[in-house]
Specification:
By secondary structure, the protein is an alpha/beta fold. Helices cover 42% and strands 17% of the residues.
Amino acid sequence: MQKKIKIVRIITRLNIGGPAIHTILLTSKIDNTKFQSYLLTGEVEKTESDMMYLADKYNVKPTVFPEISREIRPLRDIRAFFKIYKVLRTVKPDIVHTHTAKAGTIGRLAAFFAGVPITIHTFHGNIFKGYFSKRKTKILLLIERILAKVTTIIIAISNQQKKELIDLKITDCEKIKVIHLGFDFNNVLPKPYHKNKFKEKYNLPINSKLIGIIGRLVPIKNHKLFIDIAEQIISKYHNIYFPIIGDGELRNSLEQKVKERNLQNRIAFTGFIRDLKPVYADLDIVLLTSINEGTPVALIEAMACGKIVMSTKVGGIEDFVINGENGFVFDIMSPESFVEKITDWIQYSTSEKYINIKKNAKNTALQVFDYKRLISDIENLYESSINI
């Protein structure tokens, strides 16, 4: 019987978002006749929602180290390093695969000192724009360049992200492999009976149009731009509502901003919603207003559900959103560009043009981002790296 390849996967925390979904799916769906997987994670912050429920659904049992946290906390980080190091010395994995910045730092260092033969790191986004001061960003870039030297393979989740990593001189082109994300769309594709459930729950008129945003309420998601867009549309049209789906540290300040502008009757804060099927059943357009992104989950899920998507031109979005064909992307981060296109959609939403865009969006998402393709790509990468 062939010996299984041991994989230790490490992620900073299983908070709401693509990295958590990604690592849970990889741990659950990878061929267990060939691979033996372990998942190590930290705890979510108090202001974040936890995706441990998804791990339970896929029968994934992570080992949780409270010492691993998103913030830089030297003493806890040192304790996290030694705990991970001890696990690696005990398990003796063939491959350590890290995800997200903090886990990527501590995990790769622990793997190096534990003598793990192969280390892989996935950049789900980058933290080099819109997160920190210029000084801190320079320090983080230096750390990533050093870590890249002890990393066997770096995974970018889009071609654009690979280009960014090369431009930032993180590492050489040859070390970076592009592997797109993958999703189990059965978790979000609505059924006919989901129609109007979301509207009913949040007291939105059944005959209204909904333009929503889905994601954490944090600075990088730039919900202020979403509110600016909503305000302009609300001033012109009476039957369009703007749900903000998600939770996070900025919720109170965003709710206050909405009240100050007297928009609370048309902008609804729903908080975190676990079951998104009713949401996607009722939304007409999904916006993404982020300053920086990797490959945003909400946009891909919305496309899979046949929705119109409109986004700022950030991260790897242009790798899968072709402007005017399966969605819309905007160069300028201003409400006017969004408002112009939304206005056109309001007038011609039932036209052949928009019907085709929705069909193309669905086809793109289901063909490019199916989890089976992701699992196959990762399994091939693991096996080929072992045989180098």
